[in-house]
Amino acid sequence: MYTIDLAYVGRGLHEELVAYIADQEDFYSDEGVHVALRDGCTWDEERLRRGATIGLGRALLSRLTDGTPWVGLHVNTHRPLFWFLARPGLTSLADLAGRRLAVHAPHTAPGCFTRIVLRGAGLDPDRDIRTVVRAPGDYGMDLRLLRDGEIDAALVGSTMAPEAVAAEHGWQVLAWMGDHFRIPTVGLAVDTTFTDPDDPSVHAVLRAHRRALKVIREDPDTTVRHMRTFLGGHTPDEVRAHYDAFVAPHFTVDGQADLAIGKAAIASVAAELGVPAAFTAADFFRTAP
């Protein structure tokens, strides 16, 4: 049996769902590969690059800024699962002007993507918004700060169903990032310095992940059952509504990247980071079966 380390670099459905289904449904075992799922959220790049990673956004930023030869081999979705959650009185992204927003650091993938979205809404993230930078987590502290009025809004990820949380607290979902910025994100990437993209272990993982995507698209009951592991604070109906709105319509069928979306995203990310886009979408996102 082949073996491989696979690290997630964020928490929640966005990062973990496909790999979780592949593991729980024994697809890895069926494909003859032992996958060690690792929590790489706090790993530095040197440690992360010695195995496969789910975090395509982080890998893309690393290749743009450091020249690390990451390649993306599998894409789960083109719409990042992050939301702007706000206290009452705010109804649009433009209303964030002058407000306190909890958000990831600018050099992280979610932080970079957020800045792109804010600029698209006509806001300068450095001048128009009072940012409160915090590390990725389960966003529980963000909810507490929102409830206590210490911040006005927060960028939250897929450790919750934001629309259900907003309804419970009388808050607003100002925007879903996936409606404002598209990029081939989360899936499988390897650093070619250490891992051959054509290694049999890599191909076995790719086959298992394609099978997991098939479950997501064709077997709602099984997918929702697995999603409830991540969304334990929500009712079955809330989890199903979240699946129907954000997962089923937007996860890929076969793990292939849309290179036109990739090209536009690389240009936007490079511009936000202030670095040249020194490679093409086809260089980074491999679309061969």
Describe the protein:
There is one protein chain. It is built from 13 helices and ten strands. With 289 residues, the chain is α/β, with parallel strands linked by helices. The chain folds into two domains: 2-79 and 182-284, D-Maltodextrin-Binding Protein, domain 2 (3-Layer(aba) Sandwich); 83-180, Periplasmic binding protein-like II (D-Maltodextrin-Binding Protein, domain 2, 3-Layer(aba) Sandwich). The strands form three sheets. Strands 7-6-8-5-9 form a five-stranded mixed β-sheet, with helices on both faces. A three-stranded parallel β-sheet has the order 2-1-3. α1 crosses α9 and α1 packs across α10.
CATH superfamily of the largest domain: Periplasmic binding protein-like II
CATH topology description of the largest domain:
D-Maltodextrin-Binding Protein, domain 2
The top-level CATH class of the largest domain is Alpha Beta
Structural class: alpha/beta
Q: What spatial order of strands do you see in the largest sheet? A: 7-6-8-5-9
* Strand fraction: 15-25%
Summed up, the helix count is: 13
State the helicity in percent bands.
Answer: 40-55%
| CATH architecture annotation of the largest domain | 3-Layer(aba) Sandwich
Euclidean distance between termini CA atoms: 22 Å
Q: Give the topology string: H per helix, E per strand.
A: EHHEHEHEEEHEHEHEHEHHHHH
Radius of gyration from CA coordinates: 18 Å
Globally, the shape reads globular
The largest sheet, given as strand count, sense and whether it forms a barrel, is: 5 strands, mixed
Please give the number of β-strands: 10
